[in-house]
Amino acid sequence: MASSGSGARRLLVIGLDGVPSEFLFRRYKHRMPSTARLVDRGVRASLHTTDPPISVPAWPVMFTGVDPGTLGFYGFRHRAAHSYTETYVPTSDQVPVPTVFRLASDAGRRVAVVGMPMGYPPPAVNGVYISDFLTPPGAPEFTFPPELGSELTEKYGPYPFDVVFRSSERQELFEQIVSMTRTRFSIARDLLRREPWDLFAIHEVGTDRLHHAYWKYFDSTHPEFLPGNPFAGVADEYYQVVDEGISSLLDAAGPDVAVMITSDHGSMAMAGCFCVNEWLAQHGYLRLARPVPPGTRIEDAPIDWDRTTIWGSGGYYARIFFNVRGREPRGIVAADQIGPLQERLVAELAQLKGPDGRPMKVQVLDPLQIYEEVRGDAPDLMLYFGDLAWRSAGTLGYHSLFLRENDTGPDDAVHSTDGVFLFFDPRRPGPPVDLPQQSIRDVAPTVLQFLGVERPSWMQGRPIRLPEGQS
Ligand SMILES: [Zn+2]
């Protein structure tokens, strides 16, 4: 379909969740002939993700050009305003600055977006927007404009936002992931053909789900890999499905459209889980009124708040909270004690040893130090264990600091810092250009520059310098 007629260039952005640059540029390239043609002629780099390396904040950072603190997003689940138990998952209307989709809309460009986070509720744009994998089940409206939703449901059945990937039925799950991805690319291809657009973007979550559910089956270097297992070929098969989807979009987009393929973070084998709250309890920071059974969630644990100074929550990284007097409902740490308490915690964590008795690297990140602004409900500290290879288990009751399996359901992969940046302009097909690692914050200004839309002064990222003749 034609552009809205401004004469400016058109851009197709394909976002593949959790794909390490190594996978796209080398390991699965032979399974992806259409993508490989872009890799062989485009500008390519590893894209350094956000701290923390999670889809939220990473995708909204990619398309706003500001850091997670400025957005106020630190993962999926946030602790609500210093409450001990209340949590929330942020939504698109909590993004405090306009995305490139909004900015392009405001500049009179037509946009079409399929599933790009933060996509729920579906943002109003000059074009169409289908909401993302964080759409609550049964949400009444998942598209802008709303009537598009009923049309899609009629043609394709219930829209596949996501799969339940921490489910144990692996064969069925693989079929669901493939079917979800095929449906989403079909819908994207239809929209791409019939809608006028200058900026088209699609997000596919299936790549991330495949990694989490099957890493130990397809990666022979995973500590739990079983030679000859029935799922050893799932990644080969799935990356081929993704390439077929990409190929159909390239065909529908036509020869003059520039293409950007990105991922929000990489993925790697999970080494195990470190039980952060068990450790805090062992070291006297967290006090329980009585012992709890294995797997007890911190929100359900009988915590003696009058004697607890620090607690945490789990996930790809540990969020650490101080129980501060005057801030938490039953806080006991005086303001002038926060500094010494933090110093002691950091010194003790530096002594941490893994289950093999060797030192476990613990990276301590202070939101106030690493972000340009700290909005929303930030943790007091963020901890990475073993260069992110160890997940953080927030549940309690194990009598051990380490778990072989994830505490919230089967999971074989964790997130790495290495995402994908690939840019191909058919007007300047050349030999491939390898750039050094780029920052995820720089994607939004690069998109705007290509579209000829002015970069707002609040944007912290800078356009990625595409080599001469590439922009
Ligand atoms: Zn992700």
Can you tell me about this structure?
With 471 residues, the protein is an alpha/beta fold. The protein has two domains: 11-269 and 415-451, 3-Layer(aba) Sandwich (Alkaline Phosphatase, subunit A); 272-410, no CATH class. It is 29% helix and 18% strand. The protein is built from 13 helices and 21 strands. The chain has helices spanning 21-27, 33-39, 55-64, 68-71, 100-106, 146-156, 170-194, 206-218, 234-253, 276-282, 338-349, 367-370, 443-451, and strands at 11-16, 43-48, 78-79, 87-88, 111-114, 127-130, 143-144, 199-204, 258-262, 266-269, 272-275, 310-313, 318-322, 362-365, 381-385, 390-393, 402-403, 413-416, 418-424, 433-434, 438-439. The strands form five sheets. Strands 1, 2, 5, 6, 7, 8, 9, 19, 20 and 21 form a ten-stranded mixed beta sheet that branches. It has a four-stranded antiparallel beta sheet with strand order 12-13-15-14. A three-stranded mixed beta sheet has the order 16-11-17. Helix 7 runs parallel beside helix 9 and helix 8 runs antiparallel to helix 9 (234-253). The chain is globular and about 65 Å long. The mean pLDDT is 94. Bound molecules: zinc ion. Zinc ion (ZN) binds at residues 17-18, 55, 58, 208, 264-265.
